[in-house]
Amino acid sequence: MKLSGRPLLFLGILSPLLLIAFAMRAALAQQPVQKPVEKTSEKKAEKAAPPEKEANPAQIELLETRYRFEANGDSRKEVHTRVHINSELGVRQFARLNFDYNRAFQSIDLPLVRITHPSGGTADILPSAVTDNANPAVVNAPAYRDVRIKSVRILGLAPGDNLEYRVTTTTTHHPLAPDFWLSHDLAQEGIVAQESFEIDLPASRDPKPFTSIAAHDYETIRTGEGADARLSYRWKRPLPSASETLQMVMDLPVASVESDIVLTTFKGWAGFEIALQKSYDKALQVTPQLRDKAMELTKSSGRKEDTLRTLYDFVSKNIPTVDLPLDSMGFRPREAELILSSAYATPEEKCVLLSALVTAVGLRAQPAFSLSGAHPQIAPPTPSILSHPLVMSALDGRVVWLDPSVEVAPFGMIASNMRGAPAVPLYPSTDISFLEDVPRDLPFLASQRVKVNAMLAADGKLTAKVRYSMRGDNELLLRSAFHQSPKEKWKDLAQLLSLSDGFLGQVTSVSASDPYTTKEPFAVDYEITQPKFVDWSKKPVRIPALLPQLGLPDPPAKPAPGATASPIEFGTPLEVETHMTLHLPPGTTTVPPTGTSMQRDYATFASQYSANGPTVTASRHIQFLLRQVPAERATDYNAFLRAVLNDESQDFTLDRQSLPTSAAPTAIPTPTPKP
User: Fold this and answer.
1) What are phi and psi of 466, to 5 degrees?
2) H/E element holding 469?
3) What is the pLDDT averaged over residues 31-52?
4) Pairwise CA distance, residues 304 & 669, whole Å
C-alpha cells in the first residue's frame, strides 16, 4: 500500500531503511549535546571518500521478445535472453527462474537453458531441474489449481558465466478470445544492452500499436496476400539519436498509454466493457440459494446501510482471500453461489459475491476496477490497465465504495493509493462516460494517538508502556500486519513499530485489539525496556521527549528554470496527538523545554512540556487541515516546518543528587482510567 505523500508516524513497518534512520536519529537524540564532537564528525565526514560505484550484479546483454497472434485470439510468446553474471549477487538473482501461467488456457516450454563458462565450455540445464507446481497461494484452494509456477533451478552458475535461455508461452482459448492485447515496457537504458521486440498478427485484425515516446520508432512489415496476409511491428534498442527522438516527439499523436507499447483489438471503451460484461454476467447471477443466504444474513438489519454493512462484513471477514493477480483466472470468475459454497475467493471473486448478495436483497451493487496508475484519458482500453477490484453500491443517493478483499478494512475504506483515482465500473451509468472516480475522502476522520507512560530508574534503565490508537491509512496497514501475522510474531511487529518511532530497547510484551473489530480505532500496546538509557554521571543529563517524531514533508526543491513549482503534498487530512508521562527517581530536578503554538489554514501545531516533582510530561498535537500547500506559499511552510523541527529537537535537562538505588520506583504507575 502506497501511502499518501506525507510520511506518517509508522512508515518504519514498511521500510527497513526508514527503520535504520529512525533508530540512528533516536540514538543521537539520547546523547548529551556535545558541539565540539559534532564539528569533528563533520570534518571526518568531509574527508571520507565516496564509495566506488559497483557494477551491476548481472548484465542482460540480449533480450528478444516475439509475439504471434492468430485471428481467433490464440497467441505464442517467445523470449530469448542472454545474461552475463558479474558477481555472487548476480548468481543469487538468477539461481532460479520462475514463470507464472494458468494451465487452463496456457502452457510454458523451456527449450533452452544453457550456461557458458569463461573458458568456452557449456552446460545445458537438465529437465530434472524444471519443476511445475501450483502457485503457493492456492495450496488450500483447489478451485485455482490451474494457476501454476514453472520453475527452473540454475545449478553451477558462477561469476563470469553467461546464462542463456528461451521461454515459450502458448495461449489457446483465452476466456476473452477472440480479442487479444499486450502491454510491454522497453528496458531502461543500462539495464539491457540490446533489445528487440516484435508483434506478428493477421492483417485482417489490423490493430495499430499505441506507443510512448521511447517506442515511437518502429518498423512495419507486411507479408502474404488475402486471408494469409500478416503484419509485423518491430522495435530495436539502443535508442535512436537525440535528434531523431526530438522528431518523434513532434510527430506524436495526442494519446496516453500505460506502457511503452500497447496493442489491442478492443476498438473503444464500449467494446471493452461489453467483453467484460459477457465474462462476468454468469458469475453475478442471483440463484435462489444465494438469495436465501442474503436474506438470512440481513434479517435483523434495519437501515439499508446496516444491510450493506452486514453483507460486507460477512464477505470480507468470513471468506478468506486467496491473493492472486486480477488476470490470473483470465477475467472469468466462478459463479457467486459456487464462491459462497467453497468459502474462499480471489479478490475479484469476493467482489462478485458481495455484488450478488447485495443485489439479492434489492440493493444495487457491481464490481469496479481501479486503474493501474493510468491516465484517465488513456487511449486504448485493455484488461492490463485494470489493477484492483472494488465494489460500487448505490445507497440513498450516494455511492459507497468497498474493498472486501482486505478482510480487515473498515466499512467504506479504500486504500490511499486508489482514492481519488479513476476506476472502471462493470456497468457504466452512461454510454459516454466509462469511468468513475473513487472518493478521495475517508468515511471517518483520520487520527493517530500515542501515549507513553515511562519510568527512569536510578541505574539509568528506562521502562515504558506505549499505546497506539489510530484511524486512517496507517490503521489499515497495522490492522493488516497484525491480522496476517501469527500472535507469536506480534512482538517482532511491535519491535519494528518501536524502532520506526525512535524507541530503542527491547519489547517485552505486546497486545493488540481484534483486527476484525473495524468499527473502533485499532490499538496496539507494548512494553519496552532500555538499560543505560542515561548516564547519571554526566552533568547535566539531557533527554528528548519520549514521543514519536511528527512526519512532515520536506520543503519543495527549487524548480528548474522555466518549470512550474510543485505544491507541498499533505495527503489525507489527519490529526496526530502524542503524550508522554515520565516518572523520574527521587531527588531529580528537571528543566523542561518551552512549548510552541502555531496556527495556519493548512495545519496547526502545539506542544506543552512541564515538570511536577519527579513527574514530567510532554505533548505534541498537529493537525493537517488541507491536502496540499500551494507552491507560492513555500516560504511560509518552510517557516512552519522549521518551527516544528526546532520544537522536536528540544531536550529536558535533568540533574540528580546521589541517592541509593533502592530509592527508585520499582514499577510504572498505571494511569487511572478516565470516566
Assistant:
1) -120, 135
2) strand 462-471
3) 35
4) 47
Q: Are residues 498 and 635 in the same domain?
A: yes
Report d(CA 88, CA 159) in Å as an integer. 6
> How far is it, in rounded angstroms, from Cα 123 to Cα 164?
11
Domain shared by 426 and 394, yes or no = yes
Q: How far apart are CA 171 and CA 101, in angstroms?
A: 10
Domain shared by 587 and 468, yes or no? yes
Residue 299's contacts (CB-CB under 8 Å, 6 or more residues apart) are: none
**Cα–Cα distance between 527 and 508 in angstroms, integer?**
6
Q: How many angstroms separate the CA atoms of 74 and 172, rounded? A: 5
| 604 within some domain | yes
Q: Which of 410, 437, 464 is the last residue of a domain?
A: 437
Q: Which of 406, 437, 468 is the last residue of a domain?
A: 437
Same domain? 307 vs 183? no
Residue 51 counted as domain residue: no
CA 181 to chain centre: 26
Which range of residues forms the domain containing residue 154?
A: 58-264
User: 216: Cβ–Cβ under 8 A, 6 or more apart, which residues?
Assistant: 248, 249, 251, 252
- Lookup result for grid cell 551491476: 56
User: Each residue of 207-246: pLDDT tens digit?
Assistant: 889 888 888 889 999 999 988 999 999 999 875 444 444 4
Domain match, 494 and 546 both: yes
CA 636 to chain centre: 32
Strand pairing report for 446-456 and 574-583: parallel
Question: Which of 161, 90, 85, 153 is closest to 122 using CA atoms?
Answer: 161
In this structure, what DSSP letter does residue 225 have? -
For residues 566 and 473, what is the distance between their CA atoms, to the nearest angstrom? 24
Residue 636, helix vs strand vs coil:
helix
Phi and psi angles of residue 590, each rounded to the nearest 5 degrees, phi first: -135, 135
* 452: nearest Cα among 382, 327, 543, 390: 543
> Does residue 254 share a domain with residue 304?
no
Answer yes or no: is 152 within a domain. Answer: yes
The predicted-structure confidence for 560-595, as pLDDT tens digits, reads as follows 887 888 899 999 999 999 999 999 999 899 999 999
* Residue 46: inside a domain: no
* Rg from Cα positions in the chain: 30
Q: How far is 585 from 613, CA to CA, in rounded Å?
A: 10
Model pLDDT for residues 151-190, shown as the tens digit of each residue: 999 999 999 999 999 999 999 999 999 999 999 999 887 7
Q: Are 498 and 26 in contact (CB under 8 A)?
A: no
| Residue in this structure with the C-alpha cell 440493493, named with its chain if needed | 363
**Pairwise CA distance, residues 262 & 208, whole Å:** 9
If asked whether residues 273 and 245 sit together in one domain, one would say: no
Q: Is 652 helix (H, G, I), strand (E, B) or coil?
A: strand
Taking the C-alpha atoms of residue 386 and residue 549, their distance in angstroms, rounded to an integer, is 37
For residue 580, give the nearest of 464, 497, 471, 461 by alpha carbon: 464
Rounded distance between C-alpha atoms, residue 270 and residue 315, angstroms: 30
Domain count, the chain: 3
C-alpha angle 46-50-51 in degrees, rounded to nearest 5: 150
Same domain, 421 and 495: no
Q: pTM of the full predicted structure?
A: 0.84
> How many degrees, rounded to 5, is the angle at CA 548 between CA 543 and CA 549?
90
User: Is the CB of residue 224 less than 8 Å from the CB of residue 92?
Assistant: no
- Residue 324: what residue type? L
Q: What is the CATH number of the domain that holds 405?
A: 3.10.620.30
d(CA 561, CA 217): 30
DSSP single-letter state for residue 539: S
Asked if residues 604 and 625 have their Cβ atoms less than 8 Å apart, the reply is yes
The residue among 192, 177, 1 whose CA lies nearest residue 105 is 177
